[in-house]
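Ligand-bound model needed. (2E)-2-methylbut-2-enedioic acid.
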Amino acid sequence: MDDFLKEYAAVLEATRAHRIKEALPLLRDSDKEEVLTRFHPDYKREAYRAIRFGPNQGDETVHELAALLEGDSPLGTDPVDLSQPAYQVDVLVLGGGGSGATAALKAREGGQSVLLATKLRLGDSNTVMAEGGIQVAVREDDSPVQHFVDAMHGGHYKNDPALLKVMVEDAPFIVNWLDSLGVLFDRDDDGNLKVKKGGGTSRARLLACKDYTGLDLMRVLKDSVLNEESIRVIEFAPAIELLTGADGAVTGAVLRNLDTDQRIVVQAKSVIIATGGIGRLHIQNFPTSNHFGATGDALPLCYRVGARLTYPGTFQYHPTGAIHPEQMAGLLVTEAIRSGGAHLVNRAGQRFINELEARDVVCAAIIRECMEGRGIETPLGRHGVWLDIPVIDTMNGEGVVKRRYPGMVRKYGRHGINIAAEPVLIYPTLHYQNGGVQIGTNGETEIPGLYVAGEASGGVHGTNRLMGNSLLDIIVFGTRAGQAAAERAAGTEHGALTLAHLEQFRAQMKAAGVTPETTSPLLLPNYVRRPSEAVGNAN
Ligand code: MEZ
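Prediction:
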């Protein structure tokens, strides 16, 4: 352990026996409200401003997202030849994570030709970063109704009830499908699915593949897509603009080949956007648990064709992001560790919140401890509190941490930290966009031909998602969007390919007196060198 931590660790160890006996009550609603409004980043007014034009004009969001929505198209004013599309397909899926892969498989099952285009490689996504599990009511003492009630409570009753209803009701079928594809869910000695409890839930309903659940899901989804020869996959080819027909329906997209910078025009009868979340915008300067590609690309693309966003101003800061060593900053330390009994402890050796409160409340409580001087500062100026992981072995016997959390053991082990024996420093990390493009129960948007699935969409989680509901969301709505998009394609002709929506968008921008600060979608985080900046590239 680094020297600067030793004196604090001694305090932590001295209080462990006492803490084990302590039962921390859950907060009353009024206390939750107080800690949230004072310390949660979503309530920091100076981080927000109103969107100046478009479908969400007047709604508040963070500066980073407002700039993206009001950004101009990367197409600039260069003419694009739309007369000879490189591909003509029934269903175009944008995004190669869990939701995109599922949507492609289901659209193909619907008998339609499918092209899946993805910004990085197939599978490079937030799905593979998901650790703790997927919520499904499988036990006898549980039900989709109970799951619904928990998610509503966690989401501050802002969830779209119709979306949430189908999500919890489809969940048991989804788990059967994943099981049939070969996902290796944890099971007990009798072969029954094992369940864990997540924060903010009344029942243990989290199914997991150790602490790399998303990785295992993506493993089988990726294989399934690759085994389906009739699904065409193009990698390193993100969408930079959608295309619309005379009636405003989405009729295709312009992709950019990241290697050659060439544009690729695709004509499609239905387009499904499943490009994930926004963590790599580092909203309010937070570190992030998100994948490199998580630059919120769906939001400006959909906004420009006139799709409304729901809750564009709410984000999830996962309570336990690593802050030390610096190379790990932002990395997710799964909630499954708190669900397994780890304590959150301040520098005085005190627990300060029930570790299984909903995420936004735990996040706000950690920020409060740090702001009020009860955190620990790292040599590089980050502040955080302890996550006492060794207490799990103290309570359950040696070897439990290693057995249950092999992914975490490995990630910290690379930096010489043995989490079974040493506590780790954590602070909230930007993890999830609670809001997104407004959808109906089949992933449909208000724009004909445009479907959105997974983290890019919003509404199902209200303003605070519960652990494990994201892996469920991506598969449920990937499935529904894939099926609905295929059904539409079966009964539609290809539409004209135009950029009429972009002209209208630019006219609205001009009328609002807005000068764009950036082009969007961003595609890569600002600190990543663009292909055009590569050594030897004269452009
Ligand atoms: O759903 C999630 O965000 C999740 C399971 C994260 C985690 O803590 O592992």
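The pocket of (2E)-2-methylbut-2-enedioic acid is lined by residues 130-133, 332, 334-336, 467-468, 470 (CB under 6 Å).
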